[in-house]
Amino acid sequence: MPINHVSLPTGPRNFVLMRDFYLAVLQPLGFKIYKQLDGHFIGMQPKHAGPDFWLHCGGQDFDPVDPELSAKENLKTRGRSHVAFDVGSRTEVDEFYAAALKGGGVCNGAPGDRSYAKGYYAAFVLDPLGNNIEAVHFNPVWLRAVKAAPSILMLALGVAVGHFGVGYFA
């Protein structure tokens, strides 16, 4: 079963910082606010889907990332979670990355093809509390074939019906 939603703790002190970061970073991916209670929680949802990303002020207050340190150095003391957002294009990966850096994220892997699998294009940033956030466009040949299969089958069915239909009425 797919995951329904993810919720990250921000700690009370960092809630506004994290909320503002994610509103800016997820905007290029089409996310909107689903529900929020200022200072307590916020739920966000992509277009045509349910709310799947949440922040809540629970948990302890963490020290924000230090922009003077590299991602690797920040991860030694901060890295808590990894969340990957599935996006529709390489352009959306690039837009996510640009928005994340502009919003205060720390580069943890610029946009590019990854060796994990052929067709895996992703970018990684650390959010203000050191969570590793990824935008990924995974579009291998086999997946493109699966996505195209219904159209190809309908086209073949239309040709077959047209061929036999013309013969029947001739």
Automatic annotation (TrEMBL):
Q: Which Gene3D superfamilies does this chain map to?
A: 2,3-Dihydroxybiphenyl 1,2-Dioxygenase, domain 1
| Name of the protein | Glyoxalase/Bleomycin resistance protein/Dihydroxybiphenyl dioxygenase
Q: Which organism is it from?
A: Triangularia setosa
Asked whether the keyword Transport is assigned, the reply is no
Q: Which UniProt keywords apply?
A: Dioxygenase, Oxidoreductase
- Report the InterPro entries cross-referenced here: Glyas_Bleomycin-R_OHBP_Dase, Glyas_Fos-R_dOase_dom, VOC_core
> Is Oxidoreductase among this UniProt entry's keywords?
yes
Give the domain of life: Eukaryota
Name all VOC domain ranges: 2-138
Q: List the SUPFAM superfamilies.
A: Glyoxalase/Bleomycin resistance protein/Dihydroxybiphenyl dioxygenase (SSF54593)
What's a Gene Ontology MF term here? dioxygenase activity
